[in-house]
Amino acid sequence: MTLIDGKKTSAEIKAEIAEQVKQMLAEGKKAPHLVAVLVGHDGGSETYVAHKIKSCEEVGFKSTLIRFEDNVTEQEILNTVDKLNNDPDVDGFIVQLPLPKHINEQKIIEAVSPNKDVDGFHPVNLGRLVAGLDTFVSATPSGIVDLLKRYKIETAGKHCVIIGRSNIVGRPLSILMSQKGIDATVTVCHSRTENLKEIVRTADIIVAAIGKPGFVTADMVKEGAAIIDVGTTRVASTETKSGWKLKGDVDFDNVAPKCSFITPVPGGVGPMTICSLLKNTLKAGKMR
Fold first, then answer.
1. What is the pTM of this model?
2. What are the residue numbers of the active site?
3. Is residue 112 a contact partner of residue 93, using CB atoms and an 8 Å limit?
4. For all residues of the chain together, what is the average pLDDT?
5. DSSP label at 120?
């Protein structure tokens, strides 16, 4: 069993991005500028945005954080999005999800200019992905594909089962995995899938992205399968100072011995998601 090290791989990619930024600066161009809009004080979002800002510094990007309290109005967020869309100094920006319930997330996503949508969530960018056109690919699916490629995990003709159909991970990943050059045969499972265990058991590559800790158990995995665990659920823990720890969607201890490859949680997909965001921002900066 090979442990897929997202931290190590992301460090390699960051070094490659940093070299490209140095080249841009040497040519008299400005460093890419990423802006994060954070609403409220959700623990997971706070951690994620902090990592994004730190990563920007590491690769030489300019970064800006715009904060709002939970009671911010939808219109205030829309006004901020409009300003960022029209700010020539900003190459790309994200509005960190989830948002408070009184704000329509889809409305905010659609307000972001597709040319600055480095999260890859805008319907225009999703549509371009479906059509096989150059676009900003959603960060987590892009990071997963990078891991598969860098660990030389065979995908052509292999059966990839994705558990979860969200617009952020499951759906875009299913498109990526079936594209030419990756060539997997893809099955997307969800809460209404019948015989889910039997289907997952046929997979050469399993991607678990449903947010249910320990959902994928050893009896669902065939010998030699490769597993990508996207789950990052905070669960109570007496072992940590914070009182919680991250748990993946895979029962790691019991599943790992059966696998050819597996990602840990934390330290697997998470760092790659941030790397993909940096890659999209670099791309936006070069397009400018």
1. 0.93
2. 52, 96, 119
3. yes
4. 96
5. -
